[in-house]
Write a structure and sequence with these properties.
Largest sheet: 6 strands, mixed
Strand order of the largest sheet: 6-5-1-7-8-9
Shape: globular
Radius of gyration: 19 Å
Structural class: alpha/beta
Helix content: 40-55%
Number of domains: 2
Length: 265
């Protein structure tokens, strides 16, 4: 019987995978101020900064479908080599055909985020990387007893991953019965991310149980550049998922500093 080491990735996008050029439109002392997502993480609790014209919709218009261009901004970031700390880890996850979940505070739909991942594969992975990815996807297909043509296997693989914008209408609809979230996920993205992570962990563990192979190890890693997100996720994992799944390893990757900090929970 084959033996497997299953590694799953849960990743924030902005300033974690890529430093995107998308700007947040604020005002301070009545004057417009455009800031990056990295700067916003630093000043989010500073009451002297307000949304432009008192409207968070205007402030974050670049982070939603219709008024923002996620794929276009992603393309600019890669062309400018604005790589964030988890950029290489995400490339590794794709090359090895590991399951992953993008968990971002953006408003974009799952379809838009998936298109971004497809563009990332086209631009960030070499021909050799993509060939390895296809080979590894087919290995997992074979274990599951599936036969998928090479030109169809990428789509099949991407179908099994998660693409979550926690401020998007689609996310709110999925979790509308989770009253702890409320409707203002923009003010509490860190809390909303825990619901997305729980869903991804439960679904992938259930999927792993269907593989006709002996699993030596299952590990989940969550990476984020926002210290508040890291603190909330660490507490959530320790209090809930680590206790629920004692034989599974959970890691938290804090990418907010010059060096990535890794915790094994």
């Amino acid at each position: 019987m084959a033996t497997l080491d299953l590694k799953y990735y849960m990743l924030d996008w902005d300033d974690n995978i890529l430093f995107m050029p998308t700007l947040i439109h604020l005002q301070r002392d009545g004057k417009p101020v455009d800031v990056t997502t990295k700067k916003f993480a630093e000043i989010r609790s500073d009451k002297s900064y307000e949304p432009l014209d008192g409207s968070w919709d205007k402030a974050f218009k670049g982070f939603r479908d219709g008024t923002g261009d996620f794929v276009g901004d992603l393309r600019k970031a890669i062309e400018s080599e604005d790589y964030a700390p988890s950029y290489r880890a995400f490339k590794t996850a794709l090359r090895e055909a590991r399951l992953f979940c993008i968990v971002t505070a953006r408003d974009h739909s799952a379809a838009t985020i998936r298109k971004g991942v497809e563009e990332f594969i086209n631009l960030a992975l070499s021909d050799e990387d993509r060939a390895d990815m296809v080979q590894n996807i087919q290995k997992f297909h074979a274990l599951a007893g599936l036969r998928v043509a090479d030109d169809k296997c990428l789509s099949s693989y991407l179908d099994h991953n998660g693409y979550v914008g926690v401020s998007s209408p689609g996310f709110l609809k999925i979790f509308e019965n989770e009253t702890d979230i409320g409707m203002d996920t923009g003010a509490n993205p860190e809390g909303a991310k825990t619901f997305a992570v729980r869903k991804f962990v439960e679904e992938t563990i259930a999927l792993a149980k269907n593989l006709p192979a002996e699993t030596r190890r299952i590990a989940f890693g969550f990476s984020d550049d926002d210290k508040r997100n890291i603190a909330v996720m660490r507490e959530f994992l320790e209090s809930e998922l680590v206790k629920k799944y004692p034989n599974i390893d959970f890691f938290v990757y804090n990418t907010s500093g010059a060096e990535t900090e890794v915790e094994h929970l």
